């Protein structure tokens, strides 16, 4: 996609009030991942997917850690130790695809840089394996990334246990002032997937100001959450969400048939490195578990804000106020948390969404991810094409523009209660010359206005308009421009979010 505009750019067009492109998150994000590599194939799936998107963000750490299922007490020998070598195997595959990827987009991480940020964290389980003298290469990597001379916050994805992050906080606090520790904590944006050890609750109790998202279930909506590995490999069809892998069967098995044809087949070294999510006895599950969603929002900077958890995007949506004691879904972890101190996290929020292609109605905590699934799957498949195809043989992302602004920043627009408001996206483009389909839609859950939203006139064109609600004074309304090209085999989508601040 594209590089973010300057921090504050005022644009006037067509005699309308100015739009401000406010970059409050630093644009291209910095990110670091903690993963229990070797626990099951979804870790490798999500890291292959991550490196296929790493032109969109800066990778500051790939840290192998323990968790509920991978630790010295595991009944399986392979799961009793860390496996940083799996990161290196995927980076080796990425290096083979690297020359071809550079033909399709700019910004790719150098393979040697990725190797340099691989580290191992705590070797034991939970907060019990932290404390003085227990620093690891992984905890030091976290400190180095946070304290780097860079004003951007660090997006930390915890796809396992979080005791290595706890160790980093313990070590930093031991040698710094309270003010320095507060500054260190303020630089963190943590997304904890699954609460897979007791360290997350400890961190949030010990450092209550930390920005901490906890997703127990919503992250599974990338491919699921229909049940894991049923005997017929079809999972729970009632909870698989929108059917985005047609014409293959609507089941976990059908998802894998889609992946065999569109991810693994003829897509070079990264396709080979992406494993099937297969368990002992040959059981399959839905794709990529929960590990992809926590970082996926960073791909769409014009839609997703790392500072506003309730705005939504490819990484889901969460309540704007912290929730007390949002316990882990895992009983053993939950039992530990319930004997500890109270803690607060940003918890999963619900959306109501009607699929515009099918008219199917979805509500609940999975809908914030499901509403973007069609675009996210197409994005991944297209990126795998980039590994092996020439530029002319592949599809590339369109560029959504509002007025003259073709950047990535989320836009802020003033509106007057009771008055019409119009927008112009006619300067949107497609690098392949494909036709564009426009769709403008309100994201009611993201704004503060709770009344009835108006109809959007010409909402499938480049020039929509609507009347700002009469009773919306002092509130915000979120409008999303979604443009999708007609490229084949995978139509690609770009977004711009406009936050309308309503006055009189």
UniProtKB/TrEMBL annotation:
It comes from the Bacteria. Residues 422-502 form the Cellulose-binding Sde182 C-terminal domain. Residues 30-318 form the Cellulose-binding Sde182 nucleoside hydrolase-like domain. GO terms for molecular function: hydrolase activity, hydrolyzing N-glycosyl compounds. Keywords: Signal. Residues 1-20 form the signal peptide. Pfam families: Sde0182_C, Sde182_NH-like. This is Secreted protein containing DUF1593. It comes from Crateriforma conspicua.
């Amino acid at each position: 996609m594209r590089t973010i505009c300057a921090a504050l750019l005022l644009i006037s067009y067509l005699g309308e009030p100015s739009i401000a492109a406010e970059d409050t998150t630093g644009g291209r994000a910095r990110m670091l991942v903690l993963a229990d590599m070797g626990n099951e194939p979804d870790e490798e799936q999500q890291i292959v997917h991550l490196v296929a998107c790493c032109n969109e963000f800066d990778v500051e750490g790939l840290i192998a850690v323990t968790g509920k299922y991978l630790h010295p007490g595991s009944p399986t020998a392979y799961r009793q130790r860390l496996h940083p070598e799996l990161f290196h195997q995927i980076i080796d595959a990425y290096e083979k695809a690297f020359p071809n990827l550079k033909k399709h987009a700019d910004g790719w991480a150098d393979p040697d840089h990725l190797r340099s940020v691989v580290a191992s964290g705590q070797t034991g389980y939970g907060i019990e394996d932290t404390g003085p003298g227990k620093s690891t290469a992984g905890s030091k990597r976290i400190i180095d990334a946070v304290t780097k001379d860079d004003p951007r916050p660090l997006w930390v994805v915890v796809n396992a246990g979080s005791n290595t992050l706890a160790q980093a906080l313990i070590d930093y606090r031991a040698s710094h002032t309270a003010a320095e520790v507060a500054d260190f904590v303020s630089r963190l944006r943590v997304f904890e997937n699954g609460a897979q050890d007791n360290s997350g609750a400890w961190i949030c109790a010990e450092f209550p100001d930390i920005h901490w998202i906890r997703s127990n279930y919503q992250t599974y909506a990338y491919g699921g959450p229909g049940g894991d590995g049923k005997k017929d490999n079809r999972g729970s069809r009632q909870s698989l969400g929108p059917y985005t892998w047609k014409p293959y069967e609507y089941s976990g098995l059908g998802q894998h048939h889609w992946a065999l044809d569109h991810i693994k087949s003829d897509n070079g070294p990264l396709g080979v490195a992406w494993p099937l999510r297969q368990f002992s006895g040959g059981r399959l599950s839905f794709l990529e578990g929960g590990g992809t969603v926590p970082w996926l929002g960073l791909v769409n900077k014009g839609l997703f804000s790392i500072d506003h958890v309730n705005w939504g995007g490819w990484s889901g949506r969460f309540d704007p106020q912290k929730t007390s004691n949002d316990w882990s879904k895992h009983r053993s972890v939950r039992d530990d948390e319930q004997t500890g101190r109270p803690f607060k996290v940003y918890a999963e929020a619900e959306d109501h969404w009607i699929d515009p292609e099918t008219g199917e109605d979805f509500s609940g905590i999975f809908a914030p991810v499901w509403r973007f699934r069609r675009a996210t799957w197409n994005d991944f498949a297209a990126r795998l094409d980039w590994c092996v195809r020439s530029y002319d043989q592949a599809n590339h992302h369109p560029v959504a523009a509002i007025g003259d602004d073709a950047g990535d920043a989320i836009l802020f627009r003033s509106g007057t209660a009771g008055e019409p408001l119009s927008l112009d996206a006619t300067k949107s483009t497609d690098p392949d010359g494909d036709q564009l389909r426009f769709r403008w839609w309100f994201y009611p859950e993201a704004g503060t206005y709770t009344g009835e939203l108006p109809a959007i006139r010409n909402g499938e064109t480049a020039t929509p308009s609507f009347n700002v609600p009469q009773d919306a004074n002092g509130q915000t309304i979120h409008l999303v421009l979604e443009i999708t090209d007609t490229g084949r085999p995978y139509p690609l989508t770009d977004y711009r979010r406009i936050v309308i601040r309503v006055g009189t």
